[in-house]
What we know:
Strand content: 15-25%
Largest sheet: 4 strands, mixed
Number of strands: 10
Oligomer: single chain
Mean pLDDT: 88
Low-confidence stretches: 192-204
Helix content: 10-25%
Number of helices: 4
Distance between the termini: 22 Å
Number of domains: 1
Region (Disordered): 177-204
Shape: globular
Order of helices and strands: EEEHEHEEEEHEHE
Pfam family, one: DUF6886
Strand order of the largest sheet: 9-4-3-10
Structural class: alpha+beta
Amino acid sequence: MRPEPGQVLHFSEDPNIKLFVPHVARTARQQEPYVWAVDAARSPDYWFPRNCPRALAWTTASTTHHDRDRIIGPGCGDRVHAVEYRWLDAMRTVDLYAYRLPATAFEPFGTPVPTAQVATEPVTPLGPPERVGDLLRLHEKAGIHLRVLPNLWPFWDAVTESTLSWSGIRLRNAIPRTRSATEPAQEPVSRPGADSTPPRGTDP
């Protein structure tokens, strides 16, 4: 599920949004009210239940072969998404919807590489929301390696210390670090240097 040319997407578990109104999300790091959406490149970041904590990593031109094989794995493509076992049932059963919105109403958000698209005026969807469907199958068709773990933090630490690009979403909902870990659980920004706050519309 990705946007067509001239579109961006907003993913939501609410199928009844008629108008997206700019607002300040509760988890936002900025105070400006926005309507949030994503382009085709960032759409896979939101093929999850809304509150599902996930650690995402992908290769770039600067990624070393060692880091790619060590973290993503040989033969596992260029991208890996990690979730906890306890969220697997929700991924199988959630009713997730995608709203198609006009890209002309939006501008990139995040530097140096945008992680979202934002609008400062109300935006009407181009049509009714579309059911996203089987999230596991969506990952498979996109060639994204989906990794299911008992705890995200060891994987997250390895990713954030690597040459991969990465993003962490809803990590505050993750199972806490084990006692052997030395760093506190927190949700750092994505690489390169952009806020990992999930896009939102009018859904709470």
